[in-house]
Amino acid sequence: MTAGLVSYARISARGIVQGGASVGASLWREASWPELGAPAGEGLPALKGRYFSATPSPRFGRMDELCKLALAAAELCLAGVGLPRPDEVALVGGSMLGCLEVDGQYHDTLLKGGPQGASPALFVYTLPSMFLGEIAIRFGLRGRTSLIGTGVTSALAALANAVRLVERGRAPRALAVGVEAVGAFAGELDLQVRGTSGASAWLLSAEDGGLARMGDVRYGDAAGRTLAAGPEGYGLTYVAALEQALRERHVGRVVCGEGMQAVSLALE
Amino acid sequence: MKPSSAIFLVKGGAITPLGDLEDLWRGLLQGRVAFKPAGRSRPYVAAHCEFPARDPELSMRRCMALALESTRELGPGSARSDRCALVFASTKGEVDQWELQRALRVKPLETGIVLSEMASELARRLGIAGRVLATSTACASGSFAVIEAAELLEDGDVEEALVVGADALSLFIEHGFGSLKAVSLAGARPFDASRDGLTLGEAGAAVRLSLRAHGGMLGRLVSFGASNDANHISGPSRDGLGLALAIQRCLKGQDAGRIRAICAHGTATRYNDAMEAHAFHRVFGRRIPPVFSIKGNIGHTLGAAGVVELLVSALVAGRGVIPPTAGFTGQAADEPSLDVVHGGPREVGPGLVLSTNSGFGGMNTALLVGPPEVA
Questions:
Q1: ipTM exceeding 0.90?
Q2: What CATH superfamily is the domain A3-211?
Q3: Cβ–Cβ under 8 Å, residues B314 and B369
Q4: Which candidate in B200, B233, B245, B357 is best for mutational testing of the A interface (most A CBs within 10 A)?
């Protein structure tokens, strides 16, 4: 059994990409930030809920950047896609940096103001899984919710995990979301990789999927088309290359990462 | 969900504010409390671990030290290192080291606050060369890591999986919970009518999972379930629906009448404990098994809590004794009635034990554990 890829979305500094059921028969749509109503400029704009939905979440403006990015990707992925039985839709997140940016913002309130300066509004977002809670609230998803961190393969590990959930019958549908919010605080760390903010979302279903069928997830080295590292970096390193394979309607195994941290899955 | 294969809890270890796993067990039966009421100099209480500093380099890396200390009693696994997975659970990883280095303006900062980086280093130190991943689902992180590990085994990715949950106390966490006014001034009293908040604790806990039976095993993971409240970002649902869903998924195909006890999340916040009481009533009606919480003894150990409580649940399942809930004297009249074990241990005989956890972002998990021979 395989999982059907129903819908897909990606947010990057260049704009958005949508694929599958959310854009109808044309299957793929791209839009730049000015086309979405954002002011022209370099890189990712300050995100507004209205760029992604005609009826945005009233909570959008209060969220940290990580939650905004993840929720925006989910909005684009699920736009116009009916979600029957949302109680059973599983949610899998993947992120390398997680909530590091809001960690830094919150910690700065402590450094400046001591215990009395601690910001409760920032502290509630200092958990890397909070973006999954925001997505669950927005779409009423009551399935199992999990977050995976595997370094540069985090987003694809989340996708692989979601594929497994569907193909093994653990969930009839699963939404995988990879996300990174990158600001000043990531640069403080002694990490070997770098990258930019972005997010991606994949909706998988046991029953249908117009973009591709995905299955036979394997961990560890495997033969197949090697996905190239993209400019997004961090946990989103291989997302753009997988998107390219999907747009080319590649059939066969795609592989990313190295050694036992490698993730591969078959596309058909 | 019941796994397609038997999943055994081969061995477990922990470092908690009451000591190692056996010390913790004895302390729980004796009703020992690892924290004291707040003094004038501190706005709230917290439960710290005491353990020998075996490695000076780790003295500033308390989370890593807790994680490593928890694995000391486990011994070597039987699977090849590349056939053993590490699933690491934490809410904040090495935030203790990160905040110290930031305050001292160290550049560049060590990377242990990135959970996958800490997991990789932990795997290197433990000689694990198989699949390594970090999981984080707020205060349900530890129990979700157990589910992830069980599925790696079930899917044939590895032969053994080591789950390690760890979180260390830090100013970052203590002041954050203080700012939310979620911390008790007098100490956590789970399910008690007068409860007024949680007490923070720190711990490391580890459990080795395997598809193969071994002698002297701790127990067996019978089934598991998870859900999201889809209700509120930092507060539990008032009606317990989300947790009830997780429990129902866990108990699908199981005889709920065989459950001897529930090891509840029991943080001692007013909303969490009331939510759990509602959830248990939704699932079990008037036949709720006896309930206990260990957070009145060792505090809320965050990402480690799910693993610590799984280990305690396995001990309850195998030894047939439920420890009392420290700080509990009686329930509020306006909450669904529970049989909260208190005053002293209660003999119930070996059998199944349900362990539940919930966390910010609406996370809920339920694990059903039993003695090794229980199907």
A1: yes
A2: Thiolase/Chalcone synthase (3.40.47.10)
A3: yes
A4: B233
